[in-house]
C-alpha cells in the first residue's frame, strides 16, 4: 500500500518501475513474404503491380468504404483530399492548432489560408462552436484532427459543415479504428486521411491513404488523379490532360506490400492500445490534480499516446517537477505534446509560407495572435504525455498508474 507521502525516487526513495517495458518486433515473416512477392512482379509501379491495389482493397474492407487512394505520406493524403475537395487560392480552411504540421502543409500548398478553431479542454479535439464562429464567406473546408486516437465530436461538426456547404476532411493520422458513436472515424466526413509513417499504429516506412466517402466514382477519379500528377489511369487507358496542378504522391509497391501485412495486425494493435489507455484512465481518473485523457461515452479511443493534464492549483509542484519525478520513478513521459500551438510557429507569426512572400496570408490580411485559441494553449501548458505501446504488458500499465499515483499523492496540496 502506498502511503500519501512515500518518498519519491527523485528524492532517494525506491523506484516504482523496476522491470523493463515490454518490446516486440513490428515486422516479421509476413512483411518479408509480401515484399518478395512485390519484387517478383518485376515492377514496383502501383498501376502495373498488385500490392497497392490489394492494400487498398483490405483497407476498404476494414473501413467499409468503396473507394480509397494510396499516397506517399499522411501529409500527402491530406493535400490530396484538399485538392479533390476543390480547395484553392484564397479559400479558408478551419483546422486544429494542436497537430502535426502535416495537417497544414497541403492547405498552404493550395494557397489556401489556415484558420484555427479552439479545442475541447478534455478531449483536445476541435470544439464545434469555435469552428462555427470562425466560418466566413471564404471558408471552404474543415480539416478535423482526431488527436491521439480520440474522436472529435463529428455529429455537430457535420451538421455545421452541411449547413454552410463546407467539405469535411478527417485527419486520422493518429486515429486508426477510432470509433465515434459506433462509427469509424475517417468514414464520417467527405474524406478520411491516414498516415503509415513509421511512428503510427501501422507502418509502411512512409505512406498514407485517403478514403473517398461519397462512394461516387467521379469523386474517386478526381482524388486518384490528384495523387498522380492528374494522370487519369484507369484500366489500360491513361488520360494526361492537365487542367490544373496536382503533385506526384504515389505509393510504391514496396509500401503496398508491407501495408498488406501490417493491416492484418491492425485490429490487435488498436484493441491492445484501447484497453491500455482506458486502464490508465481507470487508474488515475479520480486523483486530485489530475485530469485524465477524456473519451466521450460511446466512443472508442485507440490511444496513439495518452495525455493527461495537471490541475496545478491542486498540486504543490510545477509541471516540470511532476514530470521529472515521474521519470525518476521509471515512467517515461513528456511535458505536453508539440511545444506550442502551431500558429505560434514562425511561418504563421511572420506569415511566410514561401520565402520573400506573404502569400496567401496577404489575401485576407489574417494575423495569428497569442490567445487566439486559449484552451489549446492551456492544454499544451498543463499536459503530460505518456507513450502507449501494444508491446507493453498489463504490468507495465499498472506500473505507470502506480507511478502517477505516487507522484500525484506526494505533491497533493493539503
Ligand atoms: C495528426 C497528423 N496529421 C498529419 C500527419 C502527417 O503524416 P506524415 O508524417 O505521414 O506525412 C501526422 C504525422 O505525424 C499527424 O500526426
UniProtKB/TrEMBL annotation:
<dbReference type="GO" id="GO:0008483">
    <property type="term" value="F:transaminase activity"/>
</dbReference>
<keyword id="KW-0808">Transferase</keyword>
<protein>
    <submittedName>
        <fullName>Aminotransferase DegT</fullName>
    </submittedName>
</protein>
<dbReference type="InterPro" id="IPR015421">
    <property type="entry name" value="PyrdxlP-dep_Trfase_major"/>
</dbReference>
<dbReference type="InterPro" id="IPR000653">
    <property type="entry name" value="DegT/StrS_aminotransferase"/>
</dbReference>
<keyword id="KW-0032">Aminotransferase</keyword>
<dbReference type="Pfam" id="PF01041">
    <property type="entry name" value="DegT_DnrJ_EryC1"/>
</dbReference>
<comment type="similarity">
    <text>Belongs to the DegT/DnrJ/EryC1 family.</text>
</comment>
<dbReference type="InterPro" id="IPR015422">
    <property type="entry name" value="PyrdxlP-dep_Trfase_small"/>
</dbReference>
<keyword id="KW-0663">Pyridoxal phosphate</keyword>
<dbReference type="InterPro" id="IPR015424">
    <property type="entry name" value="PyrdxlP-dep_Trfase"/>
</dbReference>
